[in-house]
Amino acid sequence: MKGKTHSTEEIIRILRQADGGETALSVCREHNISEQTFYRWKKKYGELKKMLAESMLENRVLKEVNSKKW
């Protein structure tokens, strides 16, 4: 039986709520999801967040290099 599908924005909001100080268990109960689902989302979207941060840092470095006059 397939459950309710959550949009990416909803998943990120749920994960941020847990990062804000609430326990994973209380967030899971509030949004009616299993802890396994929560940790699966955290693993998947945490990896995406890390990749985004790395690419943003790389962009900043490239902008700095391009802004200097040679």
Please give a structural write-up.
This protein is mostly helical. The mean pLDDT is 87. It has helices at residues 8-19, 24-31, 35-67.
- Uncertain residue ranges: none
Determine the N-to-C terminus distance: 62 Å
Largest sheet: none
Number of strands: 0
What value does the Rg take, in angstroms? 17 Å
Number of alpha- plus pi-helical segments? 3
User: Which geometry do the CA atoms define?
Assistant: elongated
Structural class designation: mainly alpha
How large a portion of the residues is in β-strands, by DSSP E? under 5%
Q: In sequence order, what are the helices and strands, one letter per element?
A: HHH
**Mean residue pLDDT:** 87
Q: State the helicity in percent bands.
A: over 70%
